[in-house]
Amino acid sequence: MIMQFCLRCGGRLEVQWVEAEERERPVCPACGFILYMNPKVVAGAIPFQDGRVLLLRRRIEPARGRWTFPAGYVELGESLEEAAIRETQEEVALEIGELSLLNVYSYPESPVVTVVYLSPIFGGEPRTGTEAEEVAFFSPEALPWEELAFRSTREALEDWVRRLGRA
Ligand SMILES: [Zn+2]
Q1: Which residues are in the CB-under-5-Å shell of ion ligand 1?
Q2: pTM to 2 decimal places
Q3: Which fold has domain 40-166?
Q4: What residue spans define the domains of the chain?
């Protein structure tokens, strides 16, 4: 949903052609403010141990009831790695570290860019919580391909399986 009012003066925004940028943007006719809308960054981690990865079944929308790995929006003031570590602690109570970048996922129809790390598990017992209604380890052969939450979930796990094949 697009913001309707100007962040600077409170005037009503209108979609206008911005000549200098050769595209339409929400503009405030009263003060000239231009609203730039850009993707937000999500950091995720795929925790692994003994050749299996830890996934969680989402308790909340979107994609409630479907499987993915811990991930969430990066806050101002933290790095991507810090965000991935924090989300993993918050969502499934696992301590991870020594992150290695798996890949970055973005799609024209999606408002987020998702950066996914692979990480060994250093501690903690995986548990459910406000965001996870179930947690489980999956081997590459047993991944729940038909029940994954997002396109980025599927592509990240495909990248993980491919990486295993090369190892
Ligand atoms: Zn304005």
Answers
A1: 6, 8-9, 11, 28, 30-31, 33
A2: 0.90
A3: Nucleoside Triphosphate Pyrophosphohydrolase (3.90.79)
A4: 1-37, 40-166
